[in-house]
Amino acid sequence: MIKKQSKSKIKIIEISRQLSRNFILVALTVILFIAVVSNIGITYYFSKYIQSLRVDADMEIVNYINDLLLEKSISNQLQYNLIHFAISKGTEIRILDIDNNIVLDSLAIQGKGMGAGRGQMQRKAKEYIYNTYVLENGDFTVNQVQIGHPVNLISKDQDKEFLIALNVIISVALVFAIIIAIFVGKKVANRFVAPLLGIQRNILVISHGKYHNTKRVNTAIKELNEISAMVEELAEKLESQESLRKQLTADIAHELRTPLATLKSHIEAFIDGIWQPTTERLSGCGDEIIRLEKMVKDLSELSSIEAKEIKLNPESIDLSELLNSVVENFIPLFGEKRLSVERKISEGIVFYGDNDRLKQIFINALSNAYKYNIDNGKVIISLSRQFDEKEATKQILAIIVEDTGIGIDERDLPLVFERFYRGEKSRSRETGGSGIGLTIAKAFVEAHNGEIVITSKKGLGTKLVIRFWVEADKK
User: Fold this and answer.
1) 277 and 150 housed in the same domain
2) pTM for the full model?
3) Model confidence pLDDT, tens digit, residues 18-34
4) What's the rounded Cα separation, in Å, for the pair 410 and 387?
5) Spatial CB neighbours of 14, under 8 Å, sequence gap ≥ 6
6) 443 and 362 inside one domain
């Protein structure tokens, strides 16, 4: 029973809207932060400025009172002069005697003049904060003066109007900043979205199998430029794989056609009595069946590799002995082309691996050295233990197979390990194959945590190098 996949609860929106929203959100957060911090800072420093002005005003009042008290008495005219001066400065004045008794209170005098009650005078008095100063010209009747300012530093209409105007300016700037953020947000979003839409189009083209119809997306954004390049590279690889698969169909049809046609003609001749089933003729039929069996085996191996189902049966193997035995089996085959064989196989090299898989790797390497070599050519097989320069605790077992054959074109080298790739385009039995030998060999090498590399030049031969990493010999 197949369970239905639960629907995602994530709300899907267009990337342009997502980017615009995020950009506007960040912009608004920054703008509001700047506005709030600016408002707090301006209010703080403006309050400091008002306090400084109050101190200067207090000193001016104290000096004024000192000058007036030179008359040595507080007359009614002096009281009214002080009241008017206090009103002009936005302050209240109290003059105290030596015993701290209030001799003159400008607030009380103003209250009496306006008919205010005692409660109102007390309420108004609480709204002021007083600073005390000692008088220089006071006699025994007066000693100090208290100057009161409103508790709220920003109490004057001019100050309030200034702050209101400042806040209006900040608010207007905030509105314009929001409009600009929205506009710029859309522009920035489009800058990202345009190349993404181009990449999306290329992916859609690839999904329809039209790999050559992709178009390069040019953008100054590094990551998007790299993604675009990777999508194009993917299209090229998929197109190459598609071409190889189509070629595989033709190759398999060709490979199957010959043995099946041979078997069919032989069997029909046997049935019709035209041929007698002699040992030679039955042996020919057996050879064709062996060819079919090998092809099926190769395809089965490839299927396992693609499904990542390679299972190794590791054991301690004398790698030198195994490689020598494979070379010995090829000596008669090399003799058909009069190929000289040079061995540089170090003795006693032990490796922990799968005997059958390693043998298949060596057979594939020597088979290619035979197939694509020239008559009277040469094959060099070597096995050695090397030091790993990058890691002192590791050593490298290097197997190298070199030939003096037809070589591989430089543009074909990146494809030699691709499935069904064949550098030799002819379909002759001498050079023809399924095109998956190196693919299988590479998979087996990598299953042993090794690497396989091929270097070659057209007409100058090929060099195949297999490396396995082992623990360094502590002897």
Assistant:
1) no
2) 0.51
3) 777 777 788 778 878 88
4) 30
5) none
6) yes
